[in-house]
Write a structure and sequence with these properties.
Blueprint: H1 8-22, H2 24-33, E1 52-53, H3 54-63, E2 80-84, E3 88-92, H4 97-108, E4 116-119, H5 128-138, E5 142-145, H6 151-160, E6 165-168, H7 170-182, H8 187-190, E7 195-198, H9 205-214, E8 218-225, E9 229-234, E10 247-249, E11 253-258, E12 272-278, E13 288-296, E14 303-309, E15 314-316, E16 319-321, H10 323-330, E17 336-344, E18 352-359, H11 366-381, E19 387-391, E20 403-405
Parallel strand pairs: 1-13, 4-5, 4-6, 6-7, 7-8, 17-20, 18-19
Antiparallel strand pairs: 2-3, 8-9, 9-10, 10-14, 11-12, 12-13, 13-14, 15-16, 17-18
Helix pairs in contact: 1-2, 4-5, 6-7, 10-11
């Protein structure tokens, strides 16, 4: 006899009971707020639970390493431990919730059994590559775990293996296409690629026009985070509306837009922080605030449009870079007084990451400092620096933003 599928309310109530009983960090949050797990019977009841920000989660992990009291299974049952931007340790065990959501998104994007898929998201430290890998395998696709880089080799693999699907950032796929054309290849005629799933960076309308119009690809844009997996995706996947900015919330998670001051849900067309509860029994994060701001685009409260970041972190080439990471790298160099990150996208394809640096010691060897500090930042943030500009003392104000996003998504 088939098992009856639980309603979202029933799944949530059961998950809350499990998290409270097995994750001391969750119990601490509920008890401090005076909330009993039995009081959360419906999704609407979640408003009683405080929002936990990523910064708070990172602090809790520092206070109670390595998982801040949020591990809800025996540590010996873990299969992987990742380090997501924050930095945040993220345990993965036998849970299937995150991969199941991504499996459904891949199906919606047109991926199917028999596809050969180039997975260019990172398999190193962060969970993205393996999470997509598992989801693709579950639908019967063959995965080519390539990551980024080695563009000429990846072009050859796409050609030789007759790759039909691509998962990764839109900018890297455009880099591969341009490399193929530099090699004298006709991408549209000689390659088998037909559908893509993009994530980890915004999908500019001008790139969509090229991918879907010029190259005839079926593309889907997915909003996801390292800790929470896929959260929303293109409402429609057709070239007929190339300036799409609205995204449909995934099933299989509770996703709210809330007022950052009150924690209460906002209504249609009012900005709110994206707050998420997933059904991850290994690492139950209840009402995790992503720091992303969005609005509901209609009264259904199922479609959203991202409008910016609540905090100071900025996503660069798929990785969040926080000003504190730049300061941490700079702490190794007494000659550096202040630093500011600047993100632009001059060719509308690849993020340009530059650093402005004020010196405490004007006699410092600038070329040596440029090389060593660039390497230190990449080591902390896992994003390469395009250039460092040394600026006069006082050019970076005391209250200046540590990361400045000057990209224009056109």
């Amino acid at each position: 006899m088939p098992t009856k599928k639980l309603s979202l309310d029933a799944q949530l109530a059961r998950h809350i009971q499990h998290a409270y009983a097995h994750a001391p960090g969750v119990k601490k949050i509920f008890d401090a707020a005076g909330v009993k797990p039995a009081a959360i019977k419906h999704v609407a009841d979640l408003e009683r639970v405080p929002v936990t920000s990523k910064d708070m989660l990172a602090e809790l992990q520092k206070q109670n390493p390595p998982f801040g009291g949020f591990l809800a299974v025996d540590a010996r049952k873990l299969k992987h431990i990742f380090l997501s931007p924050g930095p945040l340790y993220e345990p993965h065990g036998a849970e299937k919730a995150l991969a199941a959501v991504f499996t459904n998104v891949f199906r919606a994007a047109g991926f199917k059994r028999g596809d050969v898929v180039l997975n260019t998201l990172s398999y190193h430290l962060v969970p993205a590559g393996l999470l997509l890998d598992h989801a693709l395998q579950s639908i019967g696709a063959t995965v080519v775990p390539s990551g980024v880089g080695n563009t000429e080799l990846q072009v050859k693999m796409m050609l030789d293996l007759r790759v039909t699907g691509y998962a990764g950032t839109p900018s890297f796929l455009m880099t591969l296409i341009k490399k193929a054309e530099e090699m004298g290849l006709d991408f549209k005629k000689q390659f088998a690629l037909s559908h893509t799933l993009f994530s980890a960076e915004p999908y500019a309308p001008s790139l969509r026009v090229q991918f879907e119009g010029t190259y005839g690809l079926k593309t889907m844009n997915v909003y996801a985070t390292a800790e929470l997996g896929a959260l929303a995706y293109d409402i429609e996947n057709t070239f007929s509306t190339p300036d799409k900015s609205a995204l449909q919330l995934v099933a299989g998670a509770v996703i709210e837009l809330v007022d950052r001051e009150t924690g209460k849900r906002v209504g249609a067309r009012a900005p709110g922080e994206v707050v998420v509860t997933t059904f991850n029994e290994t690492y139950p994060l209840i009402r995790l605030g992503t720091g992303d701001m969005a609005i509901y685009t209609d009264d259904s409260l199922r479609n959203i449009m991202l409008v910016g970041r609540a905090g100071e972190a900025v996503k660069v080439r798929g990785m969040f870079v926080h000003p504190n990471q730049l300061k941490l790298a700079a702490s190794k160099f007494p000659a550096i007084a202040r630093v500011q990150g600047i993100v632009t996208r001059p060719n509308n394809v690849r993020d340009d990451f530059a650093l402005k640096v004020e010196l405490a010691d004007e006699a410092a060897d600038r070329e040596k400092l440029r090389a060593e500090y660039s390497a230190a930042v990449q080591g902390v943030c896992r994003v390469s620096v395009d250039r460092i500009e040394f600026v006069a003392k006082g050019m970076i104000g005391e209250n200046a933003r540590g990361m400045v996003d000057e990209r224009k998504w056109e």
